[in-house]
Amino acid sequence: MNRRTFLHAAAAVPAAMARGDTADIPKYKVVSRYAPWPKPGMPGSQPGQVVSLHSEKAIDAESERVHPETLREMMSRGMRTLTGDKDPRDSWARLFNASDVVGIKVNCSGAPGIMSSPELVAEIVRNLNTVGVKPASIWIYERFKGQLDSVHYDRYVPAGVHIEAAEASRGALVGYDPGTYVEVNFFGEEDTRSNLIRLVSERFTKIINVPNMKDHGASGVTGCLKNIAYGNFSNVARSHSHEKTHTLSFIGTLASVEPLRSRTVLQVMDGLRGVWHGGPFSPNRKFRFYPKRLMLGTDPVAIDRLLIDIIEAKRKAEGAISVWNRDPKYLANRRSNYPQEDPNRNNFIRETGHIEYAVRFGLGVYDVGKIQVRNIEL
Amino acid sequence: MTAACLILAALVPGLYWDRDPATAPALKQAGIERIYVPAERLDEWRRAGFEAVPFRPEAFEKATPPGVEYKIAEASATRMPWVDANGWRFVREGARAWFYEAAKGTAALAAAEPFAYGVQAVVHPDAADLPLAGRMLAFLRRIEAPPLPAMVNIAVIDDGSETTAEVLNLLARRNLLFKVTKAPDPNLLTVRIGSPEYPVEESGDPFAVAVKVRQQLTDEKRLVRIYGSEVVLARLTGDGSRARLHLLNYGRRPVQGLRVRLLGEYRDGQVLAFGAEPAAPADWSVRDGGTEFTIPAIDTYAVVDLLCAETRP
User: Fold this and answer.
1) Which of A2, A330, B45, B185 could, after both became Cys, cross-link B52 (CB 3.0–4.6 A)?
2) Which string of DSSP letters, residue by residue, matches B235-288?
3) pTM score, two decimals?
4) Is the complex ipTM more than 0.90?
């Protein structure tokens, strides 16, 4: 048997790996020289608190044009409600000051169909400026340069704001911190490390997380936790192989690594657009929808818990299987059906439970009964 | 010239050039003055001012064209790209001389690979690769220091079978450093197909054998770990006072930011990378019984010269 023949024959995954419970949690080794803050940014000052704002005017579903003035009002109301201040500058000043170097973690994996809206990012930058954070002290950042450049944030933010990707070319490690990483062997891969973006550990003092509302073929949904975890570390796609994915435990593990956990002080979930199937990408508009919603808070788990219900409700309305469905009979033949076009087919056995799993790291509140949601309609 | 330099000069690969002497200007422009030629063209090339050596490709062992294939559409037991490399053959087959029929774009790698393993080779480049091949040969000639013995974790007892060949291939592919022996080595992890640890009935799955070897050795005891690329293969040589790490990039583009972990403590290092100025490794760290550093960029080939921690000048 030659190698090619053998590899083909070995493609089937052992049944034990597809159980989907916590029996096969890999052994993680976290290496970091950074100590946590006394009160880490996640879950931050407001665990279990979510401000959810909706406005029909926020985005035009037909043209996908965002209404900046409405967005500004949503952000203002949201931040004031979150902190209890009358002036939004006071709200922002609770979290940021002129000496901060702020990273805005955007999500561009679904661009140009869906991404952290540049209008929203611009509004965040404007608010940072009002409390003294200069444009030169602000970084809009992502892992992959091609995805980041495709959004053209530079057209929306003041000159001087940095727009930087960790990987100018795919797989490049120079943008990552060699001393801060998670080591784990998932499937026998040779490179067993995932390193933190160097800007996060060496330059930023604070981070704002700006994820989208998306379905995700591996992690069930992708929101705050997935964006801050997989979006800040190298070499993470190795956690998926065939239908098995280790997103259940890997997402929370990554999100809890210092200094990422302590410095991520604000979550702004961009739900102007959403993806109800096929995420994190969005090549096909038929799977996009328009919640016209922002969710703000400091607790990524609480926001993501609400996200599950939003994606689940939309999928149900569309007649698609649940984000909790783990039945192997719904697995797609990835060679013939990829990217996934059938909302009743999964590429992986989904690990929607990654959000609840993150509770064991103290990252936030999952129990809906303990989450306080303040709904605001504009 | 010292004996060591003579040995090294002999191990810089030769270039086989079977084209018309009218192509002499292209060779000269590439800085190539010594070539291997078909016997019938020997005199013409000598008259053209070249140090020409008669050569028959069939007299040398044919090497596999080095490179990488990304088989995205094929099912496989691993996400690793498919690397075609000859290092495992060099280790197994010893002091043979090798001939590379280098496809376009691979002449530099084809020249670097045998040099890294200290074997004699002749490379037949695509004409378009002549400038690149010339630069690589010039780079190899600048690399000094006598050859050092190979440093390995594993002793493979070779039964001459194709199965063992594929195991060797896959060990090399994973940077599991080995030597080929006739008898067990008490200082190394010994692998013999047919032994109780590696029964014949399991050997039909060479991938699994390589995985098992890795597990038995453990990653903590590996002499070399590579992070940041699946297509860079390493060879480590050393004598207890110093070491040389050879890094060959089989990929089609440079690797930006290769992280290396070596077992043991080293106190200093220098990177000689093809296409770059000599430089110190970046982000040097000695911790937990290992030394780590980053090489900012590797085009095709780099050597890292290191001094062991206990060595004093």
Assistant:
1) B45
2) EEEE-SSEEEEEEEE-SSS-EEEEEEEEES-EEEEEEEETTS--BPPEEEEEET
3) 0.91
4) no
